Inverse folding.
């Protein structure tokens, strides 16, 4: 059977046990601009890459405040994200009105996962074409969750979603063990380095296309960060001090250049493997 025999409805399984409409929704998330999330013992951080449809258009909003202690970054269809973020706000408000306490982050993420799961079970609906990175802080500390259109949600030390997010994941996997003890400035710098990996070669991070979201109580050493609330979004000029801390990609390699030039045999070494590689290709 061809694949398109089973991809017209989200409630029909293929013989391989797959729901193709759900997989198409996951592809919509991969088409969105990248978002990166990290957490330490004291803070959770979101970094997102904003897109603009043209020189005359403004940059698309990538982060939304859900409650004082919760914020999200999106990748995928912004219209679906608006609907789900409003639902999350309703859940957070209901918790305050009924229980007189902020909603736990894991319960909030589970609520939107359950809502997305319904769309994979009922006829006539379609899965949401958006993925979330959710950061929050409750009595158990800072958290980072990923929400998927398939209805799955997982907690992470660090995560990336969106276009070319695998490059950011590779960076995060190399450094995630040091995130727990990082202060806020170092955590943001790691996030910017990971976000930079998702850019095209001719693009750079700047104050217009970068957003930073932070959860965690502000302290005295957090210079330039407004302590207006536990969750705050930094954009435009507020991002510039952190962009200046980015280490250039060729920065660590610069000290190694003199050592390579000092060795006379160094230029001759790559020549032989190049010839062998050509013979192997032939």
């Amino acid at each position: 059977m061809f694949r398109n025999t089973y991809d017209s409805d989200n409630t029909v399984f293929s013989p391989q046990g797959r729901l193709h409409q759900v997989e198409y929704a996951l592809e919509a998330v991969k088409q969105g601009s990248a978002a990166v999330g990290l957490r330490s013992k004291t803070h959770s951080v979101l970094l997102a890459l904003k897109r603009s449809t043209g020189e005359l258009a403004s940059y698309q909003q990538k982060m939304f405040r859900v409650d004082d202690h919760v914020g999200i970054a999106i990748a995928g269809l912004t219209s679906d994200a608006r609907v789900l973020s409003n639902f999350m706000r309703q859940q957070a408000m209901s918790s305050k009105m009924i229980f007189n306490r902020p909603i736990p982050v894991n319960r909030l993420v589970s609520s939107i996962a359950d809502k997305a799961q319904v769309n994979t079970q009922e006829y006539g609906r379609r899965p949401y074409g958006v993925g979330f990175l959710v950061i929050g802080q409750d009595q158990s500390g800072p958290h980072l969750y990923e929400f998927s259109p398939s209805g799955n949600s997982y907690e992470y030390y660090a995560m990336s979603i969106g276009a070319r997010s695998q490059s950011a994941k590779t960076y995060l996997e190399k450094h995630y063990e040091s995130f727990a003890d990082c202060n806020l400035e170092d955590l943001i710098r790691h996030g910017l380095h990971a976000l930079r990996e998702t850019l095209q070669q001719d693009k750079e991070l700047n104050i217009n296309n970068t957003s930073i979201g932070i959860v965690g109580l502000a302290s005295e050493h957090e210079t330039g960060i407004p302590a207006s609330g536990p969750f705050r979004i930094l954009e435009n000029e507020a991002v510039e001090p952190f962009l200046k801390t980015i280490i250039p990609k060729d920065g660590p390699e610069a000290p190694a250049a003199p050592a390579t030039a000092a060795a006379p045999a160094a230029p001759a070494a790559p020549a032989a493997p190049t010839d062998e590689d050509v013979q192997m290709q032939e």
Observations:
- Residues 253-282 have pLDDT under 50 and may be disordered.
- The chain has eight helices and ten strands.
- The chain has one domain: 3-255.
